Amino acid sequence: MTEMRLEISKDFSFDAAHYFNHKEEGHPFSRLHGHSFAGTVTVAGNPADDSGMVKDFWEIEAIVKAHVTSILDHSLLNDIEGLAHPSLEDIAEWVFKKLDPVLPGLVSVEIRRPSWGEKAVLRRA
Q1: How high is the pLDDT of residue 7?
Q2: Would you kindly state where each structural domain of the chain is located, as residue ranges?
Q3: 35 has which bridge partners?
Q4: Which of 27, 38, 97, 109 is most deeply buried (CB count within 10 A of its CB)?
Q5: Nearest 5°: phi and psi at 111?
Q6: Coil, strand or helix: which one is 28?
Q7: What is the mean pLDDT of residues 72-90?
């Protein structure tokens, strides 16, 4: 039989403000503005013999809350260390770096702005 690996994903969300200081003065995105962000973390592994689970979704939720959403939700992203330029790409990388040491099997982080139809995905190579 071919070796298989399961991937599971957990969604999360947060609301935050930011601005882009690399835009010229007067550009709408150089002003403080906010978004409702959505994200997804994906973990891969083999199901445990005793539970049949790769990882308990409740545990993933608790880790994401403790290391990500408790910091990002209702904040000014530019003020958070490592997010001086809080593009979707930078936020995805920041989240990945926060979760990688505490969420074994992490393979990707996706950050979305659903109202704009935009997303960035950072995937382990």
Answers
A1: 96
A2: 6-123
A3: 16
A4: 109
A5: -120, 130
A6: helix
A7: 96
- Please give the pLDDT value at position 113: 95
Average pLDDT over the chain, rounded to whole?
92
CA distance 101 to 23: 34
The structure tokens 């190579």 sit at 125
| CA pair distance 93, 78, nearest whole angstrom | 14
Instruction: Annotate 34-66 with DSSP letters as a single string.
Output: EEEEEEEEEEEEPPPTTT--SS-HHHHHHHHII
Residue written as token pair 């308990």: 56
Residues paired with residue 20 on neighbouring β-strands, in sequence order:
none
Please tell me the CATH code under which domain 6-123 is placed: 3.30.479.10
Sign of CA pseudo-dihedral 38, 74, 123, 45: negative
DSSP string across 85-124: S--HHHHHHHHHHHHTTTSTTEEEEEEEEGGGTEEEEEE-
Query: Is the pLDDT assigned to residue 1 strictly greater than 60?
Result: no
Retrieve residue 100's tokens: 């990688």
Residue 40: which of 77, 85, 7 has the closest Cα?
7
Question: Hey, what are 64's tokens?
Answer: 């994401």
